[in-house]
Specification:
Length: about 375
């Protein structure tokens, strides 16, 4: 029997049919339920785009109100979750705490509801998880750092309340708008590793929570969502090492050592720009004045970008501007990837519901390269 073609890393392989999103590289567009994601980011709130992602169409005003009310009503964490967070080892990464809590939340579901893999049940549970994600993310961090709990404030909108819990003070409207836009940019992105992981898990008819836990583990990796934290660390390292005057040499040294520059390159975009990175870049100058080192970090940002384009022909991906935007907004660095997961929850839930709605078990084959015919 002839083997089907082998593509390392499944590069270029069509893994599933979907009507959620598509990276249309030819037209430099991220298509989300028929809309251009960047147009949505410019004109809609995250919650509107979350509704679109989950239910396949933009909400009417009354539907949006009801959806936002539900997110508000379900935002508080069950008391047991706070107790669980207090038990976690302080050296744990916030992503791992988030993943642990997601696993625990499965146990708080009614068993019949947990096992119900109908798309309707996935969306029901998924909206609950999405509503809890801001408090979960902020309080995971706070528990690990020995800080007091922060409760969701029902008088605040989703992104404003989320940012408030992350930084501990009431954010101003400009900060809220930029933060909201980053959440929209992160909401859904076709078939990255974490979404694939979620769909693979869901395809065994395992439950939504299991799929989200798997996705969280995938997203943590520095080749995927973990890159936004790595970007902030790198920019600060360059600042320490001499700033923008040293940035070019820093990049060249790393490339010579065969190291990667985080926040650059992408499996699908390859050597084309990531529309999210182009769009989010626009917000940087307006925020640079918020920290004393902001302007210099922005200069470093520009030098690294130019050197990467010249040396490798590589463009930034979304994690590059986000790494600096979140820093300028005063968000602790270890929260960047957990925020990405919180924002991506809507996309992941939509994918699990779609998988469960028309399921075929994922079960690929291998190109076997080991020995044969050995005898014990
Ligand atoms: N820095 C330096 N070189 C790079 C980078 C980078 N960030 N990304 C790709 N390259 C180079 C590789 O060295 C390779 O060069 P070569 O052909 O001369 O050997 C070439 O580009 C192709 O790289 P691959 O690793 O084969 O491409 P792949 O599609 O597997 O990688 C990935 C995609 C993992 C995202 C890669 O670009 C990378 O490691 N980037 C840094 C991590 C990062 O930013 N991840 C975030 C992804 S987007 C997101 O999750 C929101």
């Amino acid at each position: 029997m002839t083997q089907p073609a082998y593509s390392p890393g499944l590069e270029g392989v069509i893994a599933t049919a979907t009507s959620i999103s598509y990276l249309d590289t030819e037209h430099e567009q991220i298509v989300l339920r028929g809309y251009d994601l960047m147009e949505l980011a410019r004109s809609k709130r995250y919650t509107e785009v979350a509704y679109l992602t989950l239910y396949g169409r933009l909400p009417e005003a009354s539907e949006l109100r009801a959806f936002e009310d539900r997110l508000r009503q379900e935002a508080e964490l069950p008391e047991e979750v706070y107790r669980l967070l207090d038990l976690l080892p302080s050296r744990m990464h916030v992503m791992d705490a988030q993943r642990t809590v997601l696993s625990y939340l499965a146990g708080l579901e009614d068993p019949a509801e947990l096992q119900d893999t109908s798309p309707e049940a996935d969306l029901r549970k998924g909206v609950r998880v999405l509503a809890r994600m801001p408090a979960l993310t902020a309080n995971a961090y706070r528990a690990l750092r020995g800080l007091p709990r922060v409760r969701p404030d029902p008088s605040l909108g989703f992104s404003e309340g989320f940012l408030y819990m992350l930084v501990g003070t009431r954010p101003d409207p400009e900060a809220v708008r930029v933060f909201d836009v980053t959440l929209t940019c992160y909401i859904e992105h076709e078939m990255p590793n974490s979404t694939f992981a979620a769909r693979v898990i869901a395809s065994t008819l395992s439950d939504l929570y299991g799929a989200l836990v798997g996705a969280a583990a995938s997203l943590k990796g520095p080749l995927h969502g973990g890159a936004n934290e790595a970007v902030a660390h790198m920019l600060l390292e360059i600042l320490e090492a001499g700033g923008s005057a040293r940035a070019e040499q820093y990049v060249l040294d790393r490339l010579r050592r065969g190291e990667r520059i985080m926040g650059f390159g992408h499996r699908v975009y390859m050597r084309r720009p990531d529309p999210r990175a182009v769009f989010l870049r626009e917000a940087l100058p307006g925020l640079a004045g918020r920290r004393p080192e902001g302007e210099e970090l922005l200069r470093i940002y520009g030098v690294v970008e130019a050197v990467m384009r010249r040396e490798k022909g590589l463009h930034p991906n979304a994690d590059y501007p986000v790494g600096l935007l979140y820093y300028l907004l005063g968000i602790p660095i270890e929260l960047y990837t957990p925020i990405f997961l919180a924002a991506r929850t809507a996309g992941l839930v939509a994918h699990v519901a779609e998988q469960h709605g028309d399921n075929r078990l994922f079960r690929p084959r291998v190109l076997y390269q080991g020995p044969r015919g050995l005898r014990p």
